[in-house]
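call fold(seq) -> tokens
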Amino acid sequence: MERIRIVPFKINFEQVKTIDKYLNWFLYLILILGVIVLTLSQVFQVGEKESYSENLNYVIGIFSLFYFIGDLLKKFLLQLAEQRRRKDFIDNSLNTNLADSRSEGYYSNEEFEPGVYKMGINCFENSFFSMTISGKMIKSLLIKSLLIILLFTLLVMVTDKITVATFLQFALPYTIFQQTIVVIIYYFQVQSIFNYFKLLFSSAQQEKRNLLLIHNVINYESTISWAGIILDDKLFKNLNEMLSAKWEEIKVDHGIT
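ret:
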């Protein structure tokens, strides 16, 4: 029988993902329009080419303003979504009533009594999923970054300085580079947190373990807050069953009972 899964804060993250999707389309649209205009400008004379560049800069400025506003909205909604998730995390772990409603079936550790120990287990599970999914995201982001580098190299080789300067005004290259760097740093930080959880549950003395668990939970939440990234939902759905089974093995291997 399939386990009932209720996630009250899911709608908040869906809103953020929708805005993020449209922002990405917006960036690619700007790039496509810019490349079209740059290509057409090569056909005209110098004076006409400068006119095209000025018009392009004007269009880029308007679109950049809209992107900036949309990105601020996305970050604001992401913070609200994370607040709801944290409340649910604390409620599930410590049996408090911070959230308006609780999730069901989101965590797979319901056999444990509420307390710091369960909070550590829940965060251990979260770090495992976050580490694995963010690690899978790195490959596609590196490919995108490589394509941007190749495109820029091509522009340097076959076009003039005005074209190169105009390309550098697009938001897309910087956005992709930033996303790539942030996800890589996020992955290694969460990996470190995950490995520390393994150490705590395997060998830490019980009288000191709770304090160390709280410290590691804070590190995890601080990392999420700093990165502000949205994990790939498609990857999560594809890997969820396999990762859930692996998580049960991890609990057994580290004596989590």
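The chain is about 80% helix and 0% strand.
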